[in-house]
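hey so i finally got around to running the thing on that chain from the lab meeting. sorry it took forever, my laptop kept dying and i had to restart like 3 times. anyway pasting the input first so we r on the same page abt which one it is
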Amino acid sequence: MAIVQVTIVPLGTGTPSVGEYVADVIRVLEQAEEQIQYQLTPMSTIIEGELDDLLAVVRRLHEVPFENGAMRVSTSITIDDRRDKKGTMEQKLRSVEDRLHP
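ok and heres what got predicted. didnt touch it at all, straight out
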């Protein structure tokens, strides 16, 4: 299981607002056939699942702003792929909480 952080920024849209683009990206995540979980944050979206599935999903997400009129898109991806044990978004957060409040 891998965790991917993705930030997709449409450029040259004529407005500084990106909320509608973000909503369209989330719609694609909601309809994904892959076995994924996602969490929207104020600055990016975190997705967990099998790496091949995540990369396929991110590829589709990158296309969303283009499909909605953007002429340029900047997508940043961070991949956390730990293979010695299964990790999830929830497990990673719990690990830190356990250290903060033993």
